[in-house]
Structures are given as C-alpha cells and as structure tokens.
Write a structure and sequence with these properties.
- Chains A, B: InterPro entries: 6-PGluconate_DH-like_C_sf, NAD(P)-bd_dom_sf, PDH_C, PDH_N, Preph/Arog_dehydrog, Prephen_DH.
- Chains A, B: It comes from Erythrobacter neustonensis.
- The structure is a homodimer.
- Chain A has about 300 residues and is an alpha/beta fold.
- Chain A folds into two domains: about 170 residues, NAD(P)-binding Rossmann-like Domain (Rossmann fold), CATH 3.40.50; about 90 residues, 6-phosphogluconate dehydrogenase C-terminal fold (Orthogonal Bundle), CATH 1.10.3660.10.
- Chain A is about 50% helix and about 10% strand.
- In chain A, the strands form two sheets. In chain A, strands 3-2-1-4-5-6 form a six-stranded parallel sheet, sandwiched between helices. A three-stranded mixed sheet of chain A has the order 7-8-9, covered by helices on one side.
- In chain A, helix 4 runs parallel beside helix 5, helix 7 packs across helix 9 and helix 7 packs across helix 11.
- Chains A and B meet through helix 7, helix 8, helix 9, helix 10 and helix 11 of A and helix 7, helix 8, helix 9, helix 10 and helix 11 of B.
C-alpha cells in the first residue's frame, strides 16, 4: 500500500508543517485536517495548511489512509477517541509525539482494533500554533518510528515512505529506547533551559532587566528553548517520567562533580571536560544536524 | 582625551574583532597588536586584524593611548607584566575578560601605577583564534565597564566613547555585581551546557551516535555553547568561583524542585514555570539581544 490521503489532527507547528510539506513537494496525497480550536481551524484554512479543514475529527479522518495525531502527548487518548467513529478499517494511525511508550499505550487503549504505528519526527522550533508551520521543517531531520510488536509490515513500509517523501530520514526503534534517547537529547535540555530561565528571573540580587540586557553571554540560547509550548512540554515530562528522572540523575551527578572541581580549583578537570565536548559539536555539524556557521548563523547588527 | 591609538594584546576572537571593527567603521585610530603565539601573529597580519602586528608586547603598546588585553582571564597577570616596559605613562589599560574582580586584582598587582579600567563586552561566538573575529561582533551588544575606585574620569569617558564607537552600548557597574550578573547570564549557562554534553557522551545505554543523530530535539543548541574555548572557560570558572557556586546553588535548588514535580506528576508546577519563561524570551527579542526568527533563523534544508 502507499499513502494517498492523510488526515492531520491538530494543526499547530507539526501538523501544519506536514500539510505544507506535502503541498510544497507536490506529493500525490490529498490532505484533510481538524483542530479542536475553531480559531485554529479558521487560520489553518486561510494558510492552506491542508486542502480541506473539516468541522469534526470524524469527518477529517473519513476514508483517510493515514491519520496523524499532532496534539500534545497528554491529549492523544482524547484525540484517538474523537477519530474512532470515522476511521477507515484500513487506516494507519500515527502521531508525532515526543514520548513514545506512553503514547502507544494511550492509542492502543482508545483504538484497540486500529493499526497503530507511533512516530516522532525529531524537528521543531520554539514556536507553536497554526502560524508556526513551514514546509521544510522535516528536511534532513530524523523521524523515529516505533512499530509495536506484530505491526503490519506493509503499513510500516507505507509510513516510512511517507516520512521519507517529506524529506526525513527514517529510523526504527523500540519505544522504550526512544524514550531514553530523547530524554537526553531533548527532554533534559528543555528541562534545564526552563529551569535556568526561571532561576534567573527569580533572583533578588540580579534584576530581570539585567538578565535580559546581558543575555548574549549564553543565556539567550536557553531562553529560546524555554519559550517552547508549555502544554506540550508539561505532557512530555509527565509521560516520560522514568527516563527523564534517570537521565536527570546522571546529569546532576556530573554537575556536582563540576561544582566540586570549581570549589577545589581543579582546572585540569574543567579543561578536560571542556575539550572533550568540542568533538561532539563537530560531529553534530558534520552529520548535518546543525548549522555550522558561528552562533547558528545569527545575524549580527552593523 | 580621546583614543587615537590602540594596542591589542591577544589576537583571537575578541582582539581580532576589535581591530576589524575599528577598520570597518573608519575610526581615526591607529592599531597595533601582539599575540604570544607566532602563528597567530602571522595569521593576524594576513587578515589585517590590526594595522601593525609587532614582534613583542612591549613594541605593540609603545605610545598607545589604550591597551586592551584580550587574553584568557588567567593570563591577564602575565600579559600585564609583558606590556609593562613599553607602556606610555598616559595609557589606559583595559581588557575584555568575562570576570572582573579577579582581573582588576591581577592587573593592579602587575601594573601598580597604571590607569586600569577593566571592561567586558558581552559578545562572542563559540569560535576562537585569529580567524574567528569579525567587524560587527559588538554591534548592539552591551559593554560593561567596571571602573575601580578613584578612576580617572577623563580616561573612563575616553574608554566609554571608544566602545560606543565600535557600536556597543556602555554600562558602568561595580566589579562584584558584574561577576554575579554574568555568573547567571553566561557562566552557569556554559557550565550546564558543557556538563550535559559530557553526560550525553558518557552514557552506556545511549550511544554517542544516537546523541548526535537526534540532537535536533534541543541538545544541539547546548553543543554550540559547549564548543567554546576550553582555556578561556576554565579560567572564567576558576576566577569567578564565589559567584558561580552561589548561582549554581540556586539553579540546583530549582532543578530539584522540578525533579520533585515530575516525580509527583505535578503538572501545574511544570506548566506554571514553562509559561513564565516565555515572557523572558519575548523581552530578550524586544530589546534586540537576540534574533527573533524561529530557531535563531537557522536555515532549514529543502
């Protein structure tokens, strides 16, 4: 089978970008969409995120080969129940959530008879909502598919081809391992960024104005991540609790070691870590996962 | 007085950018420079970072109105001793170091009779060396000057005008307060970034290859900061120990609170923090301290 029609449930950054990518690449796939917020539906129709914005989830998924749930992971169960009455028997149900074991559970409970194949495109920006999406969001990025046991091979093939057609590179992974990997490459970085921005804005001896003025020293990078969607991220931490707490434990151990090195003026320990981490940056750039220009290619005034 | 000649000691990212900015803005200021590394001196001459690259520090500062030490903060004392024999009696000695109380001490010990006015332009990239500098690095960025007690008013005025002429906005601050503010807006963010990149590369259950592949989930931002110059940053932590440990304590308290919120599934605490931090990002952008485009304006492939 190959995917000829896609229904997108949730028309924010991810859902909108999928619709725009299908259009921009001229793929022979019809698109429908729905969002529970009428204002988002109206804006999605204006921007043409999908060909047809429907008034109900049921109508949006009617006859679709592939349904992609693009909602916060805590809302997956509700979204799945909303589409249930309209779902075609042959439809693949997938998603874009940042945690995968919890989503797989929620979807299989809500849709016990459906062909469910969770997925996670590792792509995004700090923006959200129907104006945030753009057609090239997935280009060159990895999409991790976490097929459940006994998953239909043809459906898995079709979903992989779909993401490849959007410009992604596809990797298959066990849901539990996905959650561990993403805890360290995404969830902990977000938690740390949110926390330090919170810490900085709560100090008595340094004003918020000073924090903002002198943010170019490094802090501003963290403010970008800490501007990400609050509902989405609340749900990520609640749904990937085990892996997040595990990785957070490793991080705080290492941070305590650095604290001790600073306190005891152990310059060698600091220098060793600071040298080792440069190699990771080089690899990230070499593998096309970031812009290699200084400062992410940020524009500097004149 | 106004500055007619500048000697730049250390021709890396900061020193090179000062020289290039003077040239690009057509300021009526002659530039000389020196670096202790002959290869850096050769490259600086090729790139024209300053008008005259000298063979000794003494020659470079001879007759200069303003000498700017652009070396790691741990090397300030040595640099100051190297320039001592050539320093003109009227010269202002300044620097660009990221910690200020320790630098003020080191400089006044090495040059007890000189007019010393430490400064810190809050600008930079993750790159270093004689190829890293560019003329617009300081445009729109703050330069914090920390005049010592009894500082000559005319000299302070001349230094302020110099940084303003490079496109910076100047702020005067007590050295101790500077060190506290920068601990939170720069030093702790760097320490956290170095640490999480180290943690991620040391895991047994997640490979380094996976960390790199899926870095677009947030981690890649931290790899940029963690690619910063190791010597410079080792010295920052050793020289600003008190303020860094103080701010690190606040951060880890807050991180522990977030850890508890995740463990006890307190979604409200997470949502509250994640909402509050968005306002800081907006202020950073409104005040021109970061690129407001999604993802720092990073290019997305097609």
């Amino acid at each position: 089978m190959s995917v000829r029609s896609v229904a997108i449930i949730g028309l924010g950054l991810l859902g909108g970008s999928i619709g725009l990518a299908i259009g921009a690449r001229g793929l022979p796939i019809t698109t429908t969409g729905w969002d529970r917020d009428p204002a988002v539906r109206a804006r999605a129709a204006q921007r043409g995120l999908v060909a047809t914005v429907c008034d109900t989830a049921e109508a949006a998924v009617s006859g679709a080969d592939l349904v992609i749930l693009c909602v916060p992971v805590g809302a997956m169960g509700d979204a799945a129940r909303a589409i249930a009455p309209g779902l075609a028997p042959h439809a693949i149900v997938s998603d874009v959530g940042s945690s995968k074991a919890a989503v797989a559970d929620a979807l299989s409970q809500a849709l016990p008879d459906a062909c469910i194949i969770p997925a996670h495109p590792v792509a995004g920006t700090e923006q959200s909502g129907p104006d945030a999406g753009f057609a090239t969001l997935f280009a060159g990025r990895w999409c991790i598919i976490t097929p459940p046991e006994g998953c239909d091979a043809g459906a898995l093939q079709a979903l992989s081809e779909f993401w490849t057609a959007l410009g992604s590179k596809v990797e298959l992974m066990d849901a539990g391992h996905h959650d561990l990997v993403l805890a360290v490459t995404s969830h902990i970085p977000h938690l740390i960024a949110y926390t330090i921005v919170g810490t900085a804005s709560d100090l008595e001896d340094v004003t918020q104005g000073e924090v903002i003025k002198y943010s170019a020293g490094g802090f501003r990078d963290f403010t970008r991540i800490a501007a990400s969607d609050p509902v989405m991220w609340r749900d990520v931490f609640l749904s990937n609790k085990g892996a997040v707490l595990e990785m957070l434990g490793r991080f705080t151990e290492d941070l305590t070691a650095m604290q001790r090195a600073i306190r005891s003026a152990d310059g060698e320990a600091l220098f060793d870590l600071f040298t080792r981490t440069r190699a990771i940056r080089r690899a990230v750039i070499e593998q096309g996962q970031d812009d290699g220009r200084p400062d992410f290619g940020r524009e500097h005034g004149d």
